[in-house]
Specification:
The protein is about 30% helix and about 20% strand. It is an alpha/beta fold. The chain has 3 domains: about 100 residues, Alpha-Beta Plaits (2-Layer Sandwich), CATH 3.30.70; about 110 residues, 3-Layer(aba) Sandwich (Oxidized Rhodanese, domain 1), CATH 3.40.250; about 60 residues, no CATH class. The strands form 4 sheets. It has a 5-stranded mixed beta sheet. A 4-stranded parallel beta sheet has the order 6-10-9-7. Strand 2 and strand 3 form a beta hairpin. The chain is globular and about 55 Å long.
């Protein structure tokens, strides 16, 4: 097995000092795979030769990839993909922003599923997915009568950006979200349901799951939010997606429109910057403005701020203690609670004091 064992700080420094630009892109394909371990090792070797960074998941059902490619190697990268039967003519969705690097190393992992459902295959079989609408057709369909956009992403993704009037489901994971769909949409079976996610891979299974439960008027956005954002930009059309598109890499988001539709979880100022709590044993994902980041030293609470200031040895001893496992709903409530506790004193002229 091939993998990168270099320290993350050194990897970040290497990328920061690269004398060339990079492009972030993503792709996936549901396709039956065999001898996955050999495929993983071959992909790692060939992509590493091109200095490609990123995160790739392989499963018996296919491949899901997010990559950062040197611009001068982009054509070679596309040629490399074309040599694999599984990747011939695969659709590449390119990112909109490269303000910060998206990845610092290359990781290729084998998973039971490309996106976890924890369901029998026949209930969410991507081969039974609903029809796809190209981005511009999806754009027009959003305003049709008896039509509902359904966000197939996690609630914290929806919080910073979404299509107008889209249905939001209070789930932290895709496997939590799927069972909610039939119940939440039970009275919408006569509607056209327009499903969307970041790049399309979750909609494949979600649409199949809805069809399994008797929903017939189900459609999905081809290429996801990434393809939509590029399409409306290229055609000079006002976006119906407002805010930021959350992404699962170092950037944590790409601006799709100029609006900031979320607020800081600690002071309620307009903000759509996600961060993880600086205290390693917490690592809670939440929204934090620059002022609160300074006041709380990047932490989600006073308690975590105090713990993160302890000597490293003391912090390590605390981590050895047993910690309760939190359900997705508990984590959701914890994030909501941040708006009510440990607020930065807004009348304090020096937020660092």
């Amino acid at each position: 097995m091939l993998y990168n064992k270099i320290d993350k700080k050194l990897l970040k420094k290497r990328v920061a000092n690269e004398p060339f630009a990079r492009k972030t892109c993503s792709f996936y394909r549901y396709y039956p795979l065999e001898d996955i371990a050999s495929l993983r090792d071959r992909l790692y070797y060939e992509l590493n030769e091109l200095s490609v960074l990123g995160r790739i998941y392989l499963a018996a059902e296919g491949i899901n990839a997010q990559c950062s490619i040197p611009l001068h190697q982009y054509d070679n990268f596309k040629h490399l993909l074309s040599r694999y039967d599984i990747l011939k003519n695969v659709s590449l969705q390119t990112g909109l922003e490269e303000i910060v690097p998206s990845f610092y190393k290359l990781t290729i992992k084998i998973r039971p599923e490309l996106v976890a459902t924890n369901l029998p295959t026949h209930q969410a079989n991507p081969s039974l997915a609903s029809p796809k609408l190209d981005p511009l057709t999806f754009h027009e369909a959003l305003t049709a009568e008896k039509t509902l956009a359904v966000d197939i992403r996690n609630h914290y993704e929806h919080e910073v950006g979404h299509f107008d009037h889209a249905l939001r489901l209070p789930a932290d994971t895709f496997s939590d979200l799927l069972p909610m769909l039939p119940q939440k949409l039970n009275d919408k079976k006569d509607h056209n349901l327009l499903l969307y996610c970041t790049g399309g891979i979750r909609c494949e299974k979600a649409s199949a799951y809805l069809r399994h439960h008797g929903f017939s008027n189900v459609y999905q956005l081809r290429g996801g939010i990434i393809a939509y954002a590029n399409a409306v930009k290229n055609h000079h059309i006002a976006s119906r997606f407002k805010g930021k598109n959350f992404v699962f890499d170092e950037r944590l988001g790409e601006k799709i429109s100029s609006e900031t539709i979320a607020v800081c979880h600690q002071c309620s100022a307009p903000c759509d910057t996600h961060t993880n709590c600086h205290y390693e044993d917490c690592h809670l994902l939440f929204i934090q403005c620059e002022q609160c980041n300074t006041y709380f030293n990047g932490c989600c609470s006073i308690a975590c701020k105090e713990k993160s200031a302890l000597p490293i040895a003391t912090q390590r001893s605390l981590r050895k203690r047993p910690h309760p496992k939190h359900s997705a709903l508990a984590v959701h409530k914890a994030r909501a609670a941040l708006k009510k506790i440990d607020r930065r004193p807004l009348d304090n002229p020096n937020p660092s004091s």
